[in-house]
Amino acid sequence: MANYPNENLYTRDHEWAREENGLVRVGITAYAVEQLGDVTLVDLPAAGTDVKAHDRFGDVESVKTVSELFAPISGEIVEVNDALESSPELINEAPYDTGWLIVVRPSDPSELKQLMAPAAYEEHVGSLDG
Amino acid sequence: MTRSTPLIEEHRRLGAKLVPFAGWSMPLQYSGIVDEHHAVRQHAGLFDASHMGELEIHGPGAETCVDELVTSRISPVVQDTENEKIRPGLPVGKGRYTVACNTQGGILDDLLVYRLAQERFLVVCNASNHEKIQAHLTQHVAQYSNATLTDRSDELSLIALQGPAASSILSRITPAAPTTPFHIQQAPDLGEETLVARTGYTGEDGFEIFCRNTDAVPLWQKIMQAGKELGIQPAGLGARDTLRLEARLSLYGNELTEQTNPLEAGLGWVVHLHKPAFVGLDALRKIKASMTQPSQSTRTLVGFEMTDRNIARHGHVVVNAQGLEVGEITSGAPSPTLGRAIGLAYVPSEWKEVGTAFQIKIRHKVGTARVCATPFYKRPATLGTP
Q1: Average pLDDT, chain B
Q2: Which domain holds residue B314?
Q3: Could you give the ipTM of this predicted complex?
Q4: DSSP letters along B13-46, please?
Q5: Is A119 domain-assigned?
Q6: Of the residues B109, B128, B151, the one at which a domain ends
Q7: Contact check, Cβ <8 Å, B33/A66
Q8: Does B33 contact chain A (CB < 8 Å)?
Q9: What are the pLDDT digits (tens) for B38-52?
């Protein structure tokens, strides 16, 4: 079953954000992974690109479908998970660990306060499963 | 109101992710699309296809009625009067893949038509077209005084066993398995009305088994048990779609619609223009004649592979050098067997040569593709199996 680690914050669009020494690591949640199925392609912008909270910053494609990625926070991308280019399945295997997507240097760290705590996200997901 | 097949509890027990499909709750996947896809290519997969429609036409006029319903030969056809060259019709115990068209030559549905007896035919249609085909057949059959239509969809289930191990698995539970493709026979030991046909929708050898709803669960369990040591896995709609795409089998709603005709869809081989009559014949003869005029701009269904990292999907648009829309992607997915993204697209007919490069608008970007030979995947020939 999907799980939502306590150290992360979550968006309604199923991204997670984790503060790490003033930077924010971003990925997609176990729920998103479950919905997507086998991930086959991840399309991410290069490091140095600016992202804006709630705006699309990339796509993740599975065998069955494509899903847009939305930034949980505004700022500059300082690191991109290059391993996903050759091994997109890392997202399925470890969405909170080796399957991370980008690291952002937030322009306004207070935006993190608008994200959901694990319990709130779990409730949100629960309301989606009919 | 979503309907479920008699196998829904089996699917739940096997951990299926159920999704709504054509008004039915059907398994999208169990272990995962790619895993199930490989299982079917390497061993065997078991699919629930009970959502499909099964209609019977019977009576002394059934042959003519069915012959005039579909584009293929059901009755024998005299192709060349001078040489008295007669092409045979559909014999008892055999089925044929075909299409039913409207009077404009547009495809109403693709069908499997089996001749169960001299005066008894089984027509299998897509779940998404069931109501439409039921109405069309009702109207069509009413024109023949000695043919009767019975919609058996509510009483019959359909289970597809597909893969290189399918034949070994089936032989463990019944001696009644047709040895040649498209043949169908009764399997009384699996149920009073059980029929086994050597057909499928995956590009692999396999069987589609029709049975009464009450026989479906025991049959499913029997096959799963018999296939255990041979690597059988339950497989869902997701794998069914990637498997059929690799085998270049069309999907109604994607490659085939009422706005497409069988000639442009690459189904010329199921259209017999020498037949004396069938719904859409006049229109298709005209379309065929116009296709040979070079001035006529026509479109053709081609297979393609992506030449960059993008994945084109159903609904994406094919563009020319000026960025104008000249075609559309009907199906597209990463191919689990080939490890690259493939698809089918309608493109201008002059682009149909293998190797032709073209561009596809994929959301906010432009992807590059080239026409390639199809089927994308062809199962290795083996001795002793069809």
Answers
A1: 95
A2: 297-372
A3: 0.73
A4: HTT-EEEEETTEEEEEESS-HHHHHHHHHHSEEE
A5: no
A6: B151
A7: no
A8: yes
A9: 999 999 999 999 999
